[in-house]
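On clarity, I found the account of how folds are encoded harder to follow than it need be. For illustration, here is how one protein appears when written out as sequence plus structure tokens.
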Amino acid sequence: MPQLFPMNWNILFLIILLILTTTLIIMYFTFFQKVKKTQLSFNSFEKNWKW
């Protein structure tokens, strides 16, 4: 990576990774809560068919 401004790229990369992981966790939890409400019938269907 070209050093355009004096900053440690490892720290920058870690900050980006932290932001990505936190957003993914938040999105996963919100999506999971929405899916949990809508897919109760699908879970029973899955149990009946025994994939």
